[in-house]
User: Fold this.
Amino acid sequence: MRMLVLGAGLQGSACAFDLLRVPDVTEVVLADKVTDHLPAFLKPFVGGRLKTITLDVRDHAAVVKAMTGCAAVMSAIPYYFNLDLARAAVEAGVHFSDLGGNTEIVFQQKKLHGEAKQKGVSVIPDCGVAPGMVNILAQMGIEAMDTVDAVRIFVGGLPQKPVAPLNYQIVYSLEGVLDYYTTLSWVLRGGKRTQVTALSELVTVDFAEPLGHLEAFHTAGGLSTMAFRYEDKIPVMEYKTLRYPGHAALMESIRALGLLDLEAVTTKDGTTVAPRDVFVATVGPRLTKPNSPDLVALRVVVEGKKTGVKQTWARELIDRADATNGVSAMMRCTGYSLAITGLFQATGKVLGAGVLTPDEAMPGEPYVAALAARDVRIKDLAAVPA
Assistant:
């Protein structure tokens, strides 16, 4: 199988690394505008099964050419390119998956469903951790019940050794994090879609030591289309981000002061600048800690009834950075999830052709088993009476 990975950043590199460990993958093509700064864990593959090419994803013809003949294409390119890339994949007649993160774009991709299905290819957006992994787990919990009362999802990418004041370090994109902190979130309340403010409705979530107490609050994007799919079917559904205690209050204050605003302001000397750009430029370097190991913590809880008895279905993950290979926990969980999706597409293991989200397309137990084979282990918290 020849596989194409778009984007040679952290997640794309991790995706390529995972694919290269699969014997049936004969070649991995890693494409980006610049590919001369690959991480150390990819260096042994260069000149062998790993091929790098220079590609501008805005060049439609070049993208279609690069995609043609591949078993599957996986995109770790920023979300705003995903619609055009999905169109190119359908045109080329190849399977396509991406890391998503923007529900409006997913709905636009959904409009390609008929054409993709006619060509016998699958397009699966939102294939990272959240959205992605957690949506597949939530779907497993929903299918385990006869009726569902509530779905609650908690996810966080965190430093193993938090440092004040924010107790946070960048694990993917600070700009993306700030988008989630300033965008309304879709949830289900009384079975109806409603929007809630980011950083709101703070709760405590307890994990085993040494992780201990974390706080959770609303952020956008994690549910993807599930809040739309299950409207009038499930009374309560929500996604919350996990952080160390105190983070949300600090970020709420920063937001309230206007430091995350995108609308430009004029300084005393006449310079025009967006406050968020200044915030990212100032805070970003302080939160970038390449030598500080991270972790990913998540919990998915589904409450409902099975054969008339109240049940709670719950799954949990605590994954830590791979120090041996130099792969962060976020790269493992996100990049490997994307790679698994592409492999399932290429080998006919997804649940249909067309444009489908992970909860619609990915078979749950085989997906969890594939993660376990990569030592990303989902823990069963047991389906016990509520």
Q: What stands out?
A: The first strand starts at residue 2 and ends at 6.
